[in-house]
Each structure stands twice: as C-alpha cells, then as structure tokens.
Design brief:
alpha+beta; five-stranded mixed sheet
C-alpha cells in the first residue's frame, strides 16, 4: 500500500477518532495522592454495534454479558475504560446518567426519555500508584470524561500518555498509559484502536531494549503521529548496548523501591466504520488480542484482566466481491493497530515518582538519541 493509499499525514490523526463519529474524553482523579482516571469512547448518537473478548484471568468488567451476540442489546452508546480496579467501575454510573439525561440508550417505555443506557466498562489496577489507595474514579469522573468527549470536535486528536484511564498505568515496571493508532484500508474502510497499557508483562525486549511492538514496523507503511512506525520490512531502531545496559540497571533499581501488587490489565477499544454484524464484531475483538501479544510479553496471565471491546459504526459496507471473507482485512488491521497503539502509549508516557513508587518512562531510560531517532520524529 502506498502512502497515498493509506492517507497522508495531516489528513488523519492516526487515532481512534479517525473512525467518523467516535469521540474520546479523558478525566483524572484530583488530589496530591491520586494517580488514576477514566477514559470514555463515545459512539455517534444511535450507537454502534459492539462486542467484547476477555482473555485475562483477573478481569474487572461491567455490562459485558450484554454484548454477547446471543443477547438482546443491538447497539451501545459508550464504552468506559477506567482506573481504580473494581472500585473504578463506578465511573460508568456517571456516564449512564449523562446518557439518560439525553435520551440515549435502549428504549424501554413510551416516553423518549424512558431509556436504559448500556455502558460496558472495564478497569485496570492502579490502586495506590499515587500513594492514596482511596484516590480512585467515581461517577463524577465518568461524567467528566464523557462530557469531555462530547465537547470535543469530530476527528479531534486523541491525547496519549498518562491521561484518563492510563494516568496510573505501568507496564513491566515502566510507565504505561494511553495510546492510539489507525489504518485506512484499500477498500476505504477505517480501522483504529485505543489502548490502555497497564500490564504485568513487559513492552521491552530485555535482550535489545527494543519495544516488542516495533519489531512489526508500521503495518500501513506510514509512521504514526507518535513516530512508532518504521516501515514494513525496516529494522527497528536498536539502542546502543551501553544505553540499554544503563537503562536495565536503572529499571532494576526502580523496581526494588516500588513494590506494587502484581495486579494489572491491558484494555483496548478497536473500532471500524465497516458494517459488521455482532458476530463479526465479536471476531474482531478476539483477533485484536493478537496485537497485545505482539507488543507485551507475557500477556493474558491470571493477574491480568486483558479485555478488548470492538465497535462498528456501520457507515461503510463490506466489499461484496470478497464474500464471507470480507472481514479478514479488518481483522488483520485490528491487531496491527492495537500493536501500534501500545508502542505509542509507551513512547508518550512520562515517568513519575512519589509515595506510590517510582515508574520511569521508556524515553527517559533510553533517551531519544539512544533509540536512534530525532526528537521531532519520536514525539
């Protein structure tokens, strides 16, 4: 695929909001001991077809059973990703109330306001990362995040790094966060992902210092706005051995002083403007987990709650000439965008140190020169 086929930089945000109609809002928990927050993906009015696939052994979720293709709910209005472990799922109540006030949800009565918004949610474990175990998202955090999404312009850039649900995220001892990426397929269909990177496993190859996800390059041949793409077939930027050794030593020291419980989770929303059935969306959520497995190792452990939601807005028909195999390009792109979003999250993260522990960032450990790229290309 040529750069022109994929869309020139500047015409796309390389993010979830490249799927027309989707908007993203972040909110953080306030206070000196807080390091947590909530991210809301708001669907266009009328909702989107949705599905979910949970692979981690310790998930924290809400309303995911409603997304089973065998059940009655056809479309949902929003997805909530949140910190605060199971406590943080309360943030979905704020989103639900906001939607109800606007008559958005499953119609259950004669009055247009007689609705029940179905708000699937999933959480990451970040309790105490800022020092205060009780500093976690609640209904007001969810309301602030959905209001931020609603106030954003269509197609707005999605803020990455330690924001929203990624505020307190950690991956393998490094600072994690929120990342996003998108692809425009030859068929004209857009596929995009947003990921909250907070895993027991590592995003970094211990032998080389390369981010695992960078071994796969940029699937659409275009470097993303976060600079994570290196082109199909191009070698990843390897850190100097001395830089890598120093980074590993510093990370080991940080781990000695930070002893957070090994409870984590990576969350993702993979979305498309294609007209998918609920069963096809379910398959997309499942194959998108491959993107996590490429970029984080190990994954899907008993102390992870790895969860992927899929959204399909239905604006573009599948290519009829491809028949029943038409979703294949979307399935492949979903995994690719998840991998790129994880790399982008790790590159965008900024290290933190406080009462809850010290969590350095990849950028500060390796330095931009150490990963073989100029600053303006990386950020």
């Amino acid at each position: 695929m040529t750069n022109q086929d994929a869309g020139r930089r500047g015409e796309r945000n390389d993010g979830l909001t490249d799927v027309a109609g989707l908007r993203v809002g972040h909110a953080q928990v306030a206070g000196p001991g807080a390091l947590s927050g909530t991210t809301v993906v708001l669907a266009p009015e009328g909702g989107a077809v949705a599905a979910v696939d949970v692979r981690g052994g310790g998930p924290g979720t809400r309303e995911t059973d409603a997304l089973d293709p065998r059940n009655v709910v056809q479309r949902i209005e929003a997805v909530v990703l949140t910190g605060g472990s199971a406590y943080g799922l309360e943030s979905a109540a704020g989103v639900m109330a906001w939607l109800e006030e606007r008559g958005r949800g499953v119609r259950v009565g004669p009055d247009p306001l007689h609705v029940v918004p179905v708000v699937p949610a999933a959480c990451v474990f970040d309790l105490g990362r800022g020092g205060d175990f009780k500093a976690r998202p609640d209904a007001s955090t969810g309301r602030a995040a959905v209001a931020a999404a609603d106030a954003s312009e269509p197609g707005s850039l999605v803020e990455c790094g330690a924001v929203g649900a990624g505020t307190g995220a950690v991956v393998g001892g490094l600072k994690g966060g929120v990342g996003t990426a998108s692809m425009l397929l030859p068929s004209g269909i857009t596929v995009a992902a947003l990921v909250v990177v907070n895993a027991v496993g590592s995003a970094v190859d211990p032998a080389t210092g390369v981010l695992y996800g960078r071994y796969f390059g940029s699937p659409d041949g275009v470097g993303g706005a976060g600079g994570e793409g290196v082109g199909v077939g191009a070698p990843p930027p390897y850190p100097d051995p001395e830089v890598h050794a120093a980074a590993q030593e510093r990370l080991a020291r940080a781990r000695e002083t930070s002893t957070p419980p090994p409870l984590n989770t990576t969350l993702a929303v993979v979305a498309t403007d294609a007209d998918l059935t609920r069963a096809q969306a379910q398959k997309l959520a499942g194959t998108a987990h491959d993107g996590i497995a490429r970029a984080i190792r190990p994954v899907h452990l008993l102390n992870d709650g790895d969860t992927v939601f899929a959204l399909a807005t239905g604006e573009r028909p599948l290519p009829p000439e491809a028949g029943p195999l038409a979703p294949n390009e979307i399935l492949a792109a979903g995994a690719d965008t998840v991998t790129r979003a994880i790399v982008r999250a790790v590159l965008a993260a900024q290290g933190v140190a406080g009462p809850g522990g010290a969590f350095p960032s990849y950028a500060e450990l390796y330095g931009l020169d150490g990963i073989g790229a100029a600053k303006e290309e990386e950020m």
